[in-house]
Amino acid sequence: MAMKLNPNKNVPELAGTETSGQMVVPFEKEETYLHMIMRRFLKHRLACVGVVVFLLILLIALLAPVISPQDPAKIFNEFEAAPSAAHWLGTDPVGRDVMSRLIFGAQVSITVGIGAVAIYVAIGIVLGLVAGYFGGWIDMLIMRLTDVFMSFPYFMVILVLVSIIGPSLFNITLVIGLLGWPAIARLVRGSVLSIKEMDYVKAGVALGYSTPKILFQHILPNALAPILVNATFGVASAIIMEASLSFLGMGVRPPAASWGNMLTQAESITVLSSQPWLWIPPGLMILLAVLSVNFIGDGLRDAIESQNAK
Amino acid sequence: MNMPLDQVKPLLQVKHLKKYYPIKKGVISKTVGYVKAVDDVSFDIYPGETMGIVGESGCGKSTTGRSLVRLEDPTAGQIIFQGKDLANISHKEMRKLRTDLQIIFQDPYSSLNPRKRIGDLLAEPLLAHKLATKEEADKKVNEIMEIVGLPKQYKNRYPHQFSGGQRQRIGIARALMLRPKLIICDEPVSALDVSIQAQVLNLLKDLQKSLNLTYVFIAHGLGAVKYISDRITVMYLGKVMELATTRDIFENPKHPYTEILLNAYPIPNPHERNRNQMVIEGDVPSPANPPKGCVFHTRCPFAKDICREKAPELTGKAHLVACHFPIDERNA
Question: What would the pLDDT profile of A89-145 be if each residue is shown by its tens digit?
Fold first, then answer.
């Protein structure tokens, strides 16, 4: 660039004339946006506990084959045995080790929770960005489609779909993923509508950036905060959804283990009253997983959405 | 700008530019009328000059400016730039021409993406148009930051770490990255402190000299426009009222609106404050329902019958005015 502006004449003078109140306070270390979010997040005690618990569950899921004392599908001779040294959490009515099933159940919950949310966040972001940015009939079409999807009784549709395509871990993840996007799409569209009027988006257009670049590099990063919070809560509800489906026999089917299908045994009064090792542990795990994720969501929301609180 | 205008080829020509926004009502969004934000505006911009556009809020000056860079799609009219009609070319063709046409925004707080570091923000235009490699772009970012008076160590900072004046410099630097010929300055100093305003105006002036830039300078403050412009277009309710050199506009205004606008400008000298002033009354009529005839007749102290019936044409050679009774002739 052949710009000759005699910088010696201008620069010191210009830089020096800014009054001290307007000078940028020099930081020892530049704090990035991420650092700031992290710092605020870490102040949220429950969220930190949530992260620890969730990481533990994640670790259990990843290391299930290693840490599980038994094969979760292996049938032993003792049925409905109370907890003992051989079976820490006893055995179920078929004679399988409850502890091992609990550990492998974590895999199911994590897969559904994260998998389904990843699918629907991706769909929701793309549809929301397109609807909000282009407007007009595209927006109309996508938003009416969203309305249609939102007016379904969510649980019933999932139940019906799963029973048609067959209950399996992959199928429930897919179905929850394909049905969950409307909330995200609306959220994204709303943010896009306000962000696209910002001058920095207009500047991007004036600078001749491609539309995908504007959408994904300029608009999306500024719309990400509420999406992230929403997705976190989504993980919790997907975990509950899987547990409910499995409980009804429409999710993960025995002999594969899931916290939901383990709870099925609690249908009987005998089990409820006299064999608590069959239902308290899976119930507790679901509770822990959902609570930890929700606390993380709370912490994220507080860290991200309060712009001014330092 | 010493050559007579008729001997220079215009850099950009605006011909009968119109921008109407439909007013929609009801469940089926029926169009019930139009807001005539810009209504038949024509002017030429010559290379190296600064064309100021002034007028009250809502007079269509910003819409005109944004139409020039196709941030608004004009309803009708032509914008001729380098042999092409910007108002009617495809977005793809427009993207290629965007390297020559840039815009500086009014609000330095919303014109920079808060998630991007300044260095990336400035390098982005070059990289997006594949005009430079990463290393080259980085070098050019250093150069430009020096030119607009920002230490290059600030490259890794985010926009929120800068003051308004500094942000506006970054906005100017970004517009300069593609080495444009024409820059639309959309009220670039209105959001800044007075002391910072002068710095930014001086920077713009210096840049114009050294980089051979042409500006369209939009503002509602007459001071800034007077300081930087070679010629001034006065707009009212989407129409051009008067177009002349800065000197003529300030010393010899022909349109009553221009005169009133000049009178509305505060006088720094307290001893001259009690001079006889023409004060404008009433509000700007709605652009959705502009008055018949001359759009200014509802507030014009000299309005006659013909003003209420027939809209005056913009006439004149170097000093154009749209008025049935321009000031010279009225006095004569």
Answer: 888 878 888 888 899 989 988 999 999 999 999 999 999 999 999 988 999 999 999
The pLDDT of residue A254 is 77
| Minimum-distance CB partner of A24 among B107, B161, B199 | B161
Using one digit for the tens of pLDDT, what is the confidence trace for A37-57?
Answer: 888 888 888 999 999 999 999
Question: What is the value of pTM for the model shown?
Answer: 0.81
Residue type, A186: R
Average per-residue pLDDT for chain A = 83
The CATH number assigned to the domain with range A35-70+95-305 reads: 1.10.3720.10
- The CA distance from A79 to A81, in Å, is 5
Q: Does A34 touch chain B (CB under 8 A)?
A: no
Residues B7-111+184-192+207-331: name the CATH superfamily.
P-loop containing nucleotide triphosphate hydrolases (3.40.50.300)
Using a CB–CB cutoff of 8 Å, tell me whether B130 touches chain A: no
Interface predicted TM-score of the whole assembly (ipTM), two decimals: 0.85
CA distance B162 to chain A (A): 6
Q: Do B128 and A14 make contact, defined as CB atoms within 8 angstroms?
A: no
| DSSP structure class, residue B40 | E
CB A257 within 8 A of CB A64: no
Sketch the domain layout of chain A as residue ranges. 35-70+95-305
Cβ atoms of A211 and A77 closer than 8 Å: no
